[in-house]
Specification:
about 110 residues, mainly beta, 1 helix, about 10% helix, Ubiquitin-like (UB roll)
Length: about 110
């Protein structure tokens, strides 16, 4: 496998999170197959990748807390709660559909 191999995935944001991502709700991404240390790409790596390469808003703390998705954000992997898939340890697969939904609403 080459060093520049990627995994095609679809990412969606809703519940207001899309504001942090240039008001774009859906992204078709080519995620590197390996993280910074050469390990297979996981949701934890995806979150870092989104913050470093996709998120234009400087308020990263609205999306991540302590290097993981902050409480109040529901993560669905292929329409299943990420808790059923191993949370941020889940290894991203080709054609995965990963959705981030904010359940917190300001008033």
């Amino acid at each position: 496998m080459s060093d520049n191999a990627t995994i095609p995935i679809t990412i969606e944001f809703s519940g207001g999170l899309e504001i942090l991502f240039a008001n774009q709700k859906k992204y078709d991404l080519s995620l590197p197959t390996r993280d910074e240390s050469g390990e297979p790409a996981t949701v934890a790596f995806l979150v870092r990748y989104l913050c470093d390469h996709i998120m234009k808003d400087p308020r990263k703390e609205l999306f991540v807390l302590d290097d993981t998705v902050r409480p109040g954000i529901l993560v669905l992997i292929n329409e299943a709660d990420w808790e059923l898939e191993g949370e941020d340890k889940y290894q991203v697969q080709k054609s995965d559909h990963i959705m981030f939904v904010s359940t917190l609403h300001g008033g």
